[in-house]
Design goal:
Elements (H helix, E strand, L loop, with lengths): L1 H7 L3 H12 L39 E2 L8 E2 L2 H16 L40 H14 L2
Antiparallel strand pairs: 1-2
Helix pairs in contact: 1-2, 2-4
Amino acid sequence: YIRIGEEYGIRGDIAFFQAVKETNYFQFTGQVTPEQNNYCGLWATGSPLTGQESYNGADPQYVMFEPGLHGASFVSPAAGVEAHIQHLYAYATKSPLPAGKVIIDPRFSLVSRGIAPNWQQLNARWAVPGTTYGQSILFDYWSCALNR
């Protein structure tokens, strides 16, 4: 998370805590399974996939839609982390992807680009209703850091 986050100018340490929240400490107690390498619930909408979902410009070498599963699947843990970071990047800025990067996040082009340049502005965007979603990620991060 740290290395990939740095490539995009995204706080990988805080993104990791978002992944902790979304996966329930990597126990995957929700709809997404560990084998999907999907650490932030991308495309997990409550309905199972059909396999006919649009890639929306994402490179199919890195992401797939398996019928019956909930959420996109990524070919490796690193691809899953990069898709997560790309999704945050889409919310944070209108800038193009860093040089040499391809779209891995199948929802990248569906985000209102640049609408949430800070974590609190993810409220009601990443998680609905999510009125304190961004604050909860920061709270988890700082609680861990301050309780060491």
